[in-house]
Amino acid sequence: MEAKNLSIFSSRKSKSVTERTAAIILRICAIMSIVAVASITIYMVISGTPALFSQGFADILFNPVWNPTGKNPEFGILYIIITSIFGVAAAIVIGVPIGLLTAVYLSEIAQPRARTVVRSAVELLAGIPSVIYGLLGILIINPVMYDIERALFANDPNHQMTGGSNLLSAILVLAIMILPTLINISQTALEAVPDNFRKSSLALGASKIQTIFKVVIPAARNGILSAIVLGVGRAIGEAMAIVLVSGNSVNFPTPFASVRFLTTGIVTDFAYATGVHLDVLYTIGLVLFVFIIVINIVLTKVVKAGVANGK
Amino acid sequence: MKKLVSLFLAFVMAVGLVGCGSSSDNGNSSVGGVVKLDGSTSMEKLVGALSEAMPEAYPNISLEAQFTGSSSGIKALIAGTADIGDASRNLKDDEIASGAVENIVAIDGIAVAVNPNLRVGDITSEQLAQIYTGEITNWSQLGGQNEAIVVIGRDSASGTRGAFEEILDIEGACKYAQEIESTGAVVAKVASIEGAIGYVSLDMIDDTVKAMSLNGVAPSNETIADGSYTLARPFVMATMGEISQQSEAVKAVFDFIASEDGQKVLEAVGLVGVN
User: Is the pLDDT score of A229 beyond 80?
Assistant: First the structure.
């Protein structure tokens, strides 16, 4: 009987075989992700570094001119890097207050019925494929941006009209896309704050809002920081949505300029690129990969600091 | 017993159908096999139309096509994962050095697409170059309404962009407001932005956009074939080695394109034949 063999009452030998097999299977599963991460790292370094050495670090990383198919090709990705950093930072600046306050509302103030409605909206937001955000950006944000652009730069001969596909559109799309990450993780952090904190604060005469901003949010600080760091990770890796709204020309990231991000740079050129151009796309991938690693290290530090503080 | 009879009848009918199929072909069914194509997204319409039309003449040949871009198609050809590499441009020297042979099957006109509401219908090559290099920034400078020009182009390694910039001699000098990674998206953007200008294959022009005439010549199959419309580029189906060295199935593809039926297919997708 199969069931009997698996039970702890069966013979010691068959028991140890089952246990050992299970342990091996579990171990193989665990190793899979390590193998995946290790091979991706090795692959990114192997394919991303040749261009750095053949073109020179400074000519790629600190050069603003991106002209990969010209007669004298240049592969500067400085503006692309700055765009990614600037765009993600701005999306965070817009997204964090909205996300954090939504989380506060959900965990501290909302009635159960309202909470269910908002929660399902947030979950739906998280499930929408990113290309849909991009399409909505084209249909809604870009035309509005073009109207604003035409009004602002009507008499400016130095401004190139972009038709509304600009950095600001991409920032707005990114800010909306990172909301679910920010809300979900911040809310978990806020709900993990012991109820005694709130009760003590209220008992000392603080109002509900004072309690939230002076006691609960500071106590949940590390969880909120994790949410922000994960939001940064989500935003910097996004490609499909912003490739549709950002215009994709390589320019210095001013709000109404057509810009190219690290991710969209790879997406737009990859199908056609050859030779050094292709190598540089891998280098862009490597830069992106380094950013993600740094973000993860920061996240680990934040969480560790939280544990050390006893929070 | 009833079951056996019906099975037998079904068998007879199946044999009969197969017999019908083989008796109605025109003698090309001896050539068979799968031909793998890979390459230019601009050639998607052409290859799609070919793979629909070919079975009529060659019932046993099927075309397996991917559209990953001109350069990556030639890469696939050289790597041996494709039998034919589609490129919407002439082959580069390093590609020819790797053994790829350039077989031009058709000529594609690049149309300059603008919004239908634009009150400018004709442009010179020089003005077009000036628009794309940022010297002309408003349609009023060309006699149209006071509308800023939104310069739309393709990604820096697209075959259409390469051909467009090369023909106008503005390689690397273009100031794009938007760089789009597909032909269809360029049409969509031009249709939605009033001052926009973009370049696409002539067969991509539909009712939502207007094709401008260049130096007084409207783009059409005739003007592209006789050379009076100057924005045109070759469609190449590259092979490793000459066509005569290819498998029977690959040869059949080129035979079909050269045939009368094949030339009709080219015409149907807005291309101009080279024979």
Answer: yes
Q: How far is residue A1 from each of residues A7, A10, A15, B25, B208, measured CA to CA in Å? A: 10, 10, 14, 63, 72
- Measured CA to CA in angstroms, residue A275 lies from A54, A72, A266 at distances of 12, 14, 14
For the segment B28-48, what is each residue's pLDDT rounded down to a tens digit? Answer: 677 888 899 998 877 887 898
Pick the closest to residue A284 from A1, A52, A29, A7 (CA basis).
Answer: A52
Residue B200 has pLDDT above 80, yes or no: yes
pLDDT at B22 exceeding the cut of 50: no
Q: What is the mean pLDDT of chain B?
A: 84
Min Cα distance A130 → chain B (Å) is 17
Tell me the CATH number of domain A56-310, given options 3.30.365.10, 2.60.40.1180, 1.10.3720.10, 1.20.1420.30: 1.10.3720.10
pLDDT of B24 = 39
Q: At what angle do helices B248-258 and B44-57 cross, to 10 degrees?
A: 100
What are the chain B neighbours of A277 within 8 Å (beta carbons)? 156-157
Residues A162, B177: C-beta atoms closer than 8 Å: yes
Contact A67 B69 (CB under 8 A): no
Which of B92, B137, B158 comes nearest A157 by C-beta?
B137
> What's the confidence (pLDDT) of residue A16?
83
Chain A, nearest residue to B133 by Cα: A160
Within 8 A of B175 by CB-CB distance, chain A residues are 160, 249
Residue with more model confidence, A184 or A269: A184
Nearest Cβ partner for A277 among B150, B152, B157: B157
Q: With contact defined as beta carbons under 8 Å apart, do B29 and B22 qualify?
A: yes
**8-state DSSP, B210:** E
This prediction has a pTM of: 0.73
Which residues of B fall below an 8 Å CB-CB distance to A?
Answer: 41, 68-72, 75, 92, 94, 134, 137, 148-152, 155-159, 162, 171-172, 175-181, 189, 192-193, 195-196
Average pLDDT over residues A15-43: 92
Q: Do B177 and A150 touch (CB under 8 A)?
A: no
- Asked if B152 and A157 come within 8 Å (Cβ–Cβ), the reply is no
B94 CB neighbours in chain A (<8 A) are 275
* Distance from the A183 Cα atom to the nearest Cα atom in chain B, whole angstroms: 33
A266 contact B CB<8A: no
Question: What is the pLDDT confidence band of residue A307, given thresholds at 50, 70 and 90?
Answer: low
C-alpha distances in Å from residue A46, one per residue of A55, A193, A293, B53? 15, 45, 17, 45
CA dihedral B174, B176, B180, B182 (to 10 degrees): -30
Domains of chain B in start order, with CATH, are: 31-107+233-273 (3.40.190.10), 108-232 (3.40.190.10)
Q: Which residues share a beta bridge with B233?
A: B108
Domain ranges, ordered by start, for chain A: 1-53, 56-310
Record the tokens describing residue B51, joined without a space.
Answer: 């793979």
pLDDT, tens digit, 9 for 90 and up, residues A234-283: 999 999 899 989 988 898 999 999 999 999 999 888 876 777 888 999 99
**pLDDT tens per residue across span B91-141:** 888 899 999 999 999 888 899 999 999 998 899 999 999 999 999 989 999
